[in-house]
Amino acid sequence: MLRTPTSHPDVWIERPDILHVTMRGTLDAAEAAPLLAAQLEAGGTWPHAIVLCDVSRLEWMTMPARQAFAATRNAGPPRAIVVIGANATLRTIADLLFRAVQALRPAHPSPTRFVRDLAEARAVVPELRRLLGAPQR
What we know:
The protein has four helices and six strands. By secondary structure, the protein is α/β, with parallel strands linked by helices. Strand 4 (about 50-60), helix 2 (about 65-70) and strand 5 form a beta-alpha-beta unit.
């Protein structure tokens, strides 16, 4: 696995189509903006993206931060999201956020999976590629 850095230390690329994102502490809108910008800059020209988002160290995401993530619904390629390590509260919030994004972006499905760790995340990547219409590897 070749780890390619981006403009943000908590976002990195795994070619050909995976973005790794780490969220930690309390995430507010000011912290969300550069995370989102790095993701869009890194994968914005790809035909699709799979975002592996590690939230195991995320304590809370403010409403403005959630709104910032939802606002990217029409930016960038179709993408699948794999949420790694979410506690029950964060999982509920993430699920609601992804449902809202899906309702606002029906032309671009965003399949979402919740998993415990990176090994489980990697295991769902082939299914997500298939759902996004990507060539199988």
